[in-house]
Design brief:
The complex is a heterodimer. By secondary structure, chain A is mostly helical. Chain A has 10 helices and no strands. The chains are: A mainly alpha, B mainly alpha. Chains A and B meet through helix 1, helix 3, helix 4, helix 5 and helix 6 of A and helix 1, helix 3, helix 4, helix 5 and helix 7 of B.
Chain lengths: ~260, ~280
């Protein structure tokens, strides 16, 4: 009886999770000039219209470059920090790790506003670099959180063995440590990339009509107009998310709920 | 020790510099701005303006009420779903499909997900059509521009956090404890409330706190689903920075929001601490 009730709630919740995504993908295929679900007639012309609009293409390009650059920078900064935190007892270690993780709990609107105000003072606003530094700050915790648990003590003895056998610190890192934390870097990096790719609250402070990311562009549009082109753009972002997740599942595994963990 | 300190300095130098320059310094600038006026003189007036204005209290009340309701509803839906995935589903491919289904929305922009609900909840949207066809209502219900609409959108956006957090906690509960409880004669309900539920509390608390914080600081979803009729706190901050350009007052609003969330989360964390070392 209870099990039945749980099943019913669960199916309803799964349907609830799926519904808006299905509706957007469906509405993007409608042959009507207004959003219709179920779609009336089927056409890919809204996707064609999106690809024919250079501002959409530019926004997709900006988002992708921004997320790629931010993720690479975040990895380059977070991995050494994780190594220091996991391997050495030094004064201020707990503070360092708390500060590096704190963007996770800071409202993005507040950080976005802070970066705009600070950027105004130092001349770093409404540019790719201004977007980039903010994104690196908010996505670094994802990399750190994924890499830290993988720097286990067993590995440390392997590192010591490597050092005893005469490898330098860099050789030890690339030959011993890196291969073992690679899956953490990959999964943390993917989370970081996606968080950057879909961010609005932070980006919105530093975008302009010429320099805009895809979610900010969508945000500015949907407040005034709703048409099937927007649904087509949205569908593309849903499909990108689905592809990334399937890749993540196949490479490092997404079975986060299994008893084995 | 000296050698390892040098290594630490090499490893942490760049990350520390980066965070000092682009995280701590901006936050410090905002804090200072919030405590000064346009002439640069130190003043509490920005905060006094927030505290003394009835309007802010109303906005805060709406914001925290929406945050609390979002958290409660997300837990009421998310806990059974997590239970279903961890304890009831036996067929691994289906569970995997469900997990993917839960994570896909998480990887999709808030805009896109809120936009989906704008389409669904509109006057002629699928939800109204369905309710009308089912005879549950006789004229379309207004969802957009109401708290109910914002709630539906925010629960949708934040539910995956509860499911993943609770599910992860439940997966770590040792089934042999439940077996032992049953062997000692406890009914399934007694076993659940005295053994399983307390052990799942840390995951539940972590998920709830995350949902609450994200709900009260959310900007995009309320902005899109409120249709301009309801104001939440993050909108006040955004207005000050994007159209009013009063960084002093805007800063005070931002710091107020930050402090309020941190205090509430700390309080919730205290209450949620599991007794003993069960987790």
């Amino acid at each position: 009886m209870v099990t039945l009730a749980i099943r019913v709630v669960s199916y309803a919740a799964l349907a609830y999770l799926l519904l808006p995504l299905v509706v957007l993908i469906g509405a993007s295929l409608t042959a009507t000039s207004f959003l219709a679900f179920p779609p009336q007639g089927l056409t890919l012309s809204w996707y064609g219209r999106m690809l024919g609009d250079p501002t959409y293409v530019a926004a997709f390009a900006t988002s992708t470059m921004l997320a790629t650059a931010a993720t690479l920078l975040a990895i380059l900064l977070a991995v050494p920090a994780a190594l220091a935190i996991a391997r050495f007892a030094f004064p201020g270690r707990d503070t360092l790790s708390a500060v590096l993780m704190s963007p996770l709990i800071l409202p993005h609107v507040v950080l976005g506003a802070a970066l705009l105000q600070y950027g105004t003072a130092i001349g770093l606003t409404r540019s790719f670099a201004a977007l980039l530094v903010g994104h690196v700050v908010i996505i670094m915790p994802f990399v750190l959180r994924a890499v830290l648990p993988q720097l286990t003590d067993e590995q440390r003895s392997l590192e010591e063995a490597s050092a005893d056998l005469g490898a330098g610190p860099l050789a030890t890192f690339f030959l011993v440590t890196l291969p073992q934390i690679r899956s953490g870097i990959v999964s943390g990096g993917i989370f970081a990339f996606i968080s950057s790719w879909i961010n609005v609250e932070l980006s919105i402070f530093n975008t302009t009509a010429q320099l805009t990311t895809i979610p900010v562009k969508l945000f500015n549009y949907v407040q005034y107009t709703i048409d099937p082109t927007i649904a087509a753009v949205s569908s593309i972002t849903i499909l990108v998310a689905a592809v990334v997740i399937v890749v993540l599942d196949l490479t490092v595994g997404l079975d986060v709920l299994s008893e084995r963990r | 020790m000296a050698a390892s300190l040098r290594t630490v300095a090499i490893l942490t130098g760049l990350p520390v510099l980066f965070f000092a320059a682009f995280f701590l310094a901006p936050m410090l600038v905002v804090t200072i701005a919030s405590l000064t006026d346009a002439t640069g003189a130190v003043t509490w007036s920005n905060y006094a303006r927030i505290l003394l204005d009835r309007y802010h209290w109303d906005v805060l009340w709406v914001t925290f009420r929406i945050g609390a309701l979002t958290t409660i509803v997300s837990v009421l839906i998310g806990y059974p779903l997590a239970w279903y995935l961890v304890r009831i589903v036996k067929w691994a491919p289906w569970r995997r499909a469900c997990v993917i289904l839960i994570v896909v929305p998480l990887f999709t922009s808030n805009i896109v997900r809120s936009f989906g609900w704008m389409v669904l909840l509109g006057r002629n949207g699928l939800v109204n059509d369905g309710l009308l066809a089912g005879g549950l209502i006789d004229r379309p219900v207004r969802f957009l521009g109401t708290e109910l609409g914002i709630l539906i959108g925010l629960v949708y956006i934040l539910l995956p956090f509860v499911v993943l957090s609770v599910g992860n906690g439940l997966a770590k509960v040792d089934p042999s404890l439940e077996q032992a409880s049953a062997d000692l004669g406890a009914t399934p309900a007694a076993t659940f409330w005295t053994v399983t539920f307390p052990l799942s509390l840390p995951g539940l608390m972590a998920g709830s706190i995350m949902v609450f914080m994200l709900a009260v600081s959310a900007y995009v979803t309320p902005a899109l689903l409120s249709g301009g009729r309801i104001t939440v706190f993050s909108m006040l901050i955004f207005q000050q920075y994007s159209s009013v350009f009063d960084f002093h007052y805007g800063g005070a609003l931002g710091i107020t929001m930050l402090l309020l969330t941190l205090v509430l989360v700390a309080v919730a964390g205290r209450f949620g601490e599991p007794k003993g070392k069960g987790a």
